[in-house]
Amino acid sequence: MASASDSRSNGVSGRIKSAATIMHSENQSLLAELRKALIMMKEIGVELERDNQSRMVKELENSVVELLSTYENCNNFSLAIQSVGNIYEPKEELTDFGKLLDDEVAKVSQDSSSNLMNHSIIRQFREAVWNVHHAGQPMPGEEKEDIVMTSTQCNLLNVTCPLSGKPVIELTEPVRSAECKHVYEKAAIMQYLKSKKSRAQCPVAACPKMLQSDKVVPDPFLQIEIDELRKISRHSDRIQDFTELDAD
Fold this sequence. Notes:
Blueprint: H1 4-50, H2 54-87, H3 97-111, H4 120-134, H5 147-151, E1 174-177, E2 183-185, H6 186-195, E3 199-201, E4 210-212, E5 216-217, H7 222-247
Antiparallel strand pairs: 1-2, 1-5, 3-4
Helix pairs in contact: 1-2, 1-4, 2-3, 2-4
């Protein structure tokens, strides 16, 4: 039988984890807005390049780097908050939450990209600008065979639903697992989970994660990333056409 102190400790842990989950969720909405702003800046860069405004394009790229730094810092802070909620355990001495959070931010930051100039978002900005006047040509320092590969990078782990077989960009109601980050058609994954009594292994081959219906959701980033993939796919098709023409 649990003691009163154990019950209080569990209650405190639960409240801390709940608060951390809420804060993490609210930060996701902010991060989604920052991501939209970065995409918009890329589109503005393309328009400026079409008008041969090279100086303004370079200034805009510098602003993209600054905003990306803010995005990465916010994301690291959000992940650190979530981590604090998961690892916190009450002790006899008072917990220094400031130090605990700072330690988790430092850990998360070590795993993130230290060189923003190599970040995929900067890469996509530069490629989009470059392709205004050089579609089908490799960027400086690239081989032609690398064009399609690097232009089709995206943040989605799977580009087709493992249950319906539909491409992610064609899904009617896309949802993503909070556990493994794989994407599915909502109707298909809910039917799958229902047949498995609401808990089952992810249907993506070799993924060991177990899914629960309440953790398969349309998170704030999902539609943004699907729209990005849709644009990248159209761009990749155009690049492929150019490379085939060169081959002929």
